[in-house]
Amino acid sequence: MHAAEATKSARRPTNLSIDSALLKEAKALGVNISRSAEAGIWEAVKLHKQEKWLTENASALASSNAYVDANGLPLARHRQEKIQDTHLFNKTIDLDELLIECQHNTLERFQTQRK
User: Fold this and answer.
1) Neighbour tally for 4: CB within 10 Å
2) CA dist., res. 87 & res. 51, Å (int)
């Protein structure tokens, strides 16, 4: 998405300090320095926005996880109990357990990154 956004907005020249050896190698390889720097900045912005959102919503995520741990998923009774997915090593997957695990992993990964 960031490439599309970049083409819509006006570009402006800017000065950057870049490691001279890296710059020399990039030029030798024909790397577009401006576009590469821009791509890196887009990625940094995305990561900072994700971190900001997770920080701002950490208590809500923890509360939601605590609710699910105590009560299960709200609409669990309407879901199939288990599915057979032959693409995942013929393992039987409990969708509710998978969702809960994903929620916990997201929060744990965020908390680990913050340390």
Assistant:
1) 7
2) 32
Tokens representing residue 82 in the block: 């288990």
Q: If DSSP codes are grouped into helix, strand and coil, which group holds residue 12?
A: coil
The CA distance from 61 to 103, in Å, is 8
pLDDT tens, N- to C-terminus, the chain (115 residues): 555 555 567 889 999 999 999 999 999 999 999 999 999 999 999 999 999 999 999 999 889 888 888 888 787 776 665 554 445 555 555 666 767 777 777 767 766 766 5
Q: Where are the domains of the chain?
A: 18-114
Q: Which amino acid is at 111?
A: Q
Containing 92, the helix (H) or strand (E) segment is strand 91-93
3-state secondary structure 15-82: CCCCCHHHHHHHHHCCCCHHHHHHHHHHHHHHHHHHHHHHHHHHHHHHHHHHHHHHHCCCCHHHCCCC
DSSP 84: E
